[in-house]
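REQUEST FORM: STRUCTURE PREDICTION
Request ID: SP-0412
Submitted by: Lab K.M.
Chain count: 1
Length (residues): 121
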Amino acid sequence: MAYFIEHIDGFKTTLFILNGFLQDFNYAGLVKQTGEIISCQMHLPMPPRLSTTADFFNPLVNKIEQTILSGKATYPVERTLLTSGMTLFAVESLYRGQIRLETPEMKVAYRAPANSTFWRA
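STATUS: Completed
RESULT:
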């Protein structure tokens, strides 16, 4: 399955769901100005067979705890709005017969933090 996403600035994203081929999250993009390909792998170890979920909750609870203790979000909330919104509208498009959906409510901008927010034990 694939979702084609056109961003407001003209950037295009394709989201592939390749169950049975890949078990982690991968990204590759083409930098228009230079022709450079950039990519990254977001490794999420999946649980043993017959388990119910991967280890999403320990990192999430840790970030919640850091937010409460410091009084500020540990990463841009806008990023969650964008990723959750893209997922929500992708599923909505599929439900409506794979139609193109306009998403003006996703006009959200943010600057990525300099430091990684990758979960570290």
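NOTES: The radius of gyration is 17 Å.
Reviewed by: T.R.
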